[in-house]
Design a protein that fits this description.
Blueprint (H helix, E strand, L loop, with lengths): L17 H4 L2 H5 L7 H12 L4 H10 L4 H7 L3 H4 L2 H8 L2 H13 L1 H11 L3 H12 L8 E2 H11 L4 H18 L7 E2 L12 H7 L15 H14 L9 E6 L16 E2 H7 L1 E2 L9 E9 L2 E7 L1 H7 L5 H19 L1
Antiparallel strand pairs: 1-2, 3-5, 3-7, 4-6, 6-7
Length: about 325
C-alpha cells in the first residue's frame, strides 16, 4: 500500500522529470479545467453519473505540483541500497513508537490478528514504515497529486487517470470532500497509505461505525492493512524470510531475479545456497542478495515476504517491514 502503498510507494523509471521542467512554470498557472484532456475526463465521469459542474469546479481548484513530478521520478527504493535504506526505518524511535501504538490499540490489533492471521508486529510495522504510525501521512492534496500525475506525467498517466477516477468514486462512497483529503506525492492516503483503488478494494470498517476511515481512524487502518495482506495470500503462521549463506561460488545468477518465489529450496541447495533453518526442499523461495552494513547479505524470501511486496513492489521495503516487525516483537517480549 501499501505504499501501496504503494501504495501503496511506486517504483517508476528514474530520470523521468526532465520532460516537465520547461513547461512547469506555465502549468502552475494553468487551470486544469481549461484543458481538452481534462474535459474528456470530465465527460467520462459524467457518464458514470457524476455531476459535471462539480467536476468542473474541482478541476478549477486542482493545481499542478512540480515537486510531485520530481519526487516520483527518484523513489528511495531505486536510489538507495540496503545499507542506507534500512537507516530510514530501522531506528529505535520507530521501534518504540510501534510498541506504544500497539499498546494504545491492543484490542484492535488482537482482533485483526485473530481474523486475518497476520501477526501484530507485521501490521504495526507496515503502518510504521508508511507513516510513522499515522504521524506523517502526506502533505499534498490528493486531487493535486492525482491530477498532476494523470495529466502531466506521461510515463504512468494511464495508471494515474484510473486512480483519479477511483478517487472520485471513493470520496462519493465515503461521503468525503474531493478537495480535502491529503496524502503522498503518489496520492496514497491515511495511516496505511492506500491508493484509491486499494482503499475501495481492501479498506474495512473495523470498528463497526459504518465508515471505512483509514484517513483518521487507526482501528480501521489496522484492520485494513491486515485485510490487504490476507487478501494477497498471507499464510497464517508462515515464515517471512530466512538468512542464507553460500558454501561455494555460484556460476548461475539466481539472486534478485524475481520477487515472487521461483526456485525450490532443494535446487538452491544443490547450487550451494544453504540456510540454518530447516525448510521443505520442495518449497519455492526468492533468493536475494543485499548490500548490507557488513557487506553482502543473502536471504530467501518466502510467500509472506512476497505478500509484503504486493504492498510495495520492493525487496528493500519488504525487508524493512520484516526487520522492523522483528525488533518490535523483541521489545514487546521484554
Amino acid at each position: 500500500m501499501l505504499r501501496l502503498t504503494l501504495l501503496l510507494i511506486f517504483l517508476l523509471p528514474a530520470g523521468c522529470s526532465s520532460f516537465a521542467d520547461e513547461a512547469s512554470a506555465t502549468l502552475v498557472n494553468t487551470s486544469y479545467a481549461e484543458r481538452e484532456d481534462v474535459q474528456q475526463f470530465i465527460s467520462e465521469m459524467a457518464e458514470e453519473g457524476f455531476d459535471a459542474e462539480m467536476l468542473q469546479n474541482t478541476f478549477v481548484a486542482a493545481r499542478y505540483q512540480q515537486s510531485i513530478i520530481d519526487s516520483i521520478s527518484r523513489p528511495a527504493e531505486r536510489t538507495l541500497n540496503w545499507d542506507k535504506y534500512q537507516d530510514i526505518f530501522l531506528t529505535e524511535r520507530r521501534v518504540q513508537a510501534g510498541v506504544e501504538f500497539i499498546d494504545t490499540h491492543r484490542d484492535a490489533f488482537e482482533a485483526a490478528e485473530a481474523r486475518y492471521g497476520v501477526p501484530i508486529p507485521v501490521i504495526a510495522s507496515i503502518i510504521g514504515v508508511e507513516t510513522l504510525y499515522g504521524r506523517i501521512t502526506g502533505k499534498y492534496r490528493v486531487i493535486d497529486a492525482l491530477s498532476t500525475l494523470a495529466f502531466d506525467y506521461p510515463p504512468r498517466s494511464k495508471f494515474f487517470r484510473s486512480e483519479l477516477k477511483e478517487f472520485f468514486r471513493l470520496t462519493r462512497e465515503e461521503g468525503q470532500s474531493v478537495l480535502e483529503p491529503l496524502g503522498s506525492y503518489a496520492g496514497a492516503m491515511g495511516y496505511g497509505q492506500f491508493i484509491s483503488s486499494s482503499y475501495r478494494s481492501y479498506a474495512v470498517d473495523f470498528d463497526g461505525d459504518g465508515i471505512r476511515d483509514i484517513w483518521n481512524n487507526p482501528v480501521d487502518a489496522i484492520g485494513s492493512v491486515a485485510n490487504y495482506l490476507s487478501r494477497h495470500g498471507w499464510e497464517r503462521g508462515g515464515l517471512v524470510t530466512v538468512s542464507a549463506r553460500l558454501d561455494r561460488e555460484l556460476t548461475d545468477n539466481v539472486f534478485n531475479v524475481s520477487l515472487k518465489p521461483n526456485l525450490s529450496v532443494a535446487d538452491l541447495s544443490t547450487l550451494g545456497v544453504l540456510t540454518d533453518v530447516l525448510l521443505d526442499g520442495s518449497l519455492d523461495v526468492s533468493p536475494m542478495r543485499l548490500e548490507g552494513k557488513a557487506g553482502e547479505e543473502y536471504w530467501l524470501g518466502l510467500n509472506n515476504f512476497y505478500v509484503i511486496t504486493r504492498y510495495n513492489h520492493s525487496k528493500l521495503y519488504a525487508m524493512a517491514v520484516f526487520q522492523l516487525s522483528e525488533r518490535i516483537q523483541r521489545s514487546l517480549s521484554n
